[in-house]
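Need residues for this backbone.
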């Protein structure tokens, strides 16, 4: 790197991304994630653990969510997104918001669950999210996005979580309550 190409801000940004990717654990995430979001993630962890019967899988799903959220936050805070990516981010935000509203509706209104709609909506969110970060993040991070969305678009998971006699109804109710709070705050 010549003196003309050296920029300490760029080096600092790269170091920040690297450090955060290594530190994005549940405890560190509390610095970046508010209480309601933290409660939501804790309940998502419990839901994944209960549904999959696998503590490691639940930890991996939630850690991947946290790592992606933190990395996108760092990219945004450091002005790394170009105008097209900002438009993609806005489309993602709108799609994610409408998906959250659908999840709430499926929980609150009996017999309204539409697995195909939810799967398609989540897959659209995945595509937009990957389009947003593909220029900035590694293949490993893109695989993290896929891992999270693969879990939540699994038809068996969706049927199990949203069935009328689901064992996860109480946890899903807590997740929906947190989603309502985040929607009211404008955070979701």
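Answer:
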């Amino acid at each position: 790197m010549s003196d003309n190409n050296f920029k300490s801000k760029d080096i600092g940004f790269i170091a920040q991304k690297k450090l955060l990717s290594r530190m994005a654990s549940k405890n560190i995430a509390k610095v970046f994630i508010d209480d309601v979001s933290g409660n939501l993630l804790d309940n998502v962890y419990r839901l994944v653990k209960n549904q999959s019967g696998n503590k490691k899988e639940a930890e991996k799903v939630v850690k991947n969510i946290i790592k992606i959220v933190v990395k996108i936050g760092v990219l945004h805070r450091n002005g790394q997104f170009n105008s097209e990516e900002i438009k993609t981010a806005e489309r993602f935000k709108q799609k994610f918001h409408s998906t959250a509203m659908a999840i709430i509706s499926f929980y609150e209104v009996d017999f309204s669950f539409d697995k195909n709609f939810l799967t398609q909506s989540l897959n659209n969110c995945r595509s937009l999210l990957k389009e947003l970060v593909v220029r900035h993040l590694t293949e490993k991070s893109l695989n993290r996005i896929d891992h999270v969305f693969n879990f939540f678009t699994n038809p068996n998971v969706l049927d199990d979580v949203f069935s009328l006699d689901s064992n996860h109804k109480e946890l899903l109710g807590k997740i929906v309550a947190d989603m309502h709070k985040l929607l009211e705050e404008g955070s979701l």
